[in-house]
Fold AsnC family transcriptional regulator.
Amino acid sequence: MLDLPHLDQVDQDIIKLLHDNGRMSFAKIGETLNLSRVAIQKRVENLIEQDVIENFTVRLNVTKLGKVVSAFFEVEVEPRYVEEVGNLLADDANVISIYQMTGSSSLHMHALLKDDASLEDFLYQNIYKLKGVVRVNTQVVIKRFKQGTGLEL
């Protein structure tokens, strides 16, 4: 059960239902919570306006889309280039997420790639060539135990 004191129980229940099934209709949510479709729609619109709900999305099976190599990178960058390198890598279609981490000036990045050759190309053509990159530590996923989409409810 959610415990978000700034949201009433109905909003928390709506969030939980949408988290479990983002395609659930306002009518079905209303039926589940004994409210009208219009009331649910208004509440969801308010949650969007408050930036509690950022977007609705779909989770893809990336392997079936030809992205079989999932790799994490620790990219150490000279401090003065962190912003520039982070923005350049964030624009790469292979990059799923990228974060600046505490401690040394490093970026933690997750990318999905087609195969080993694509991984090698990504390293040499997209990372190593960037001005300010000092070191790259690459780890390839061999087994996934859990994949989240954000806050677990």
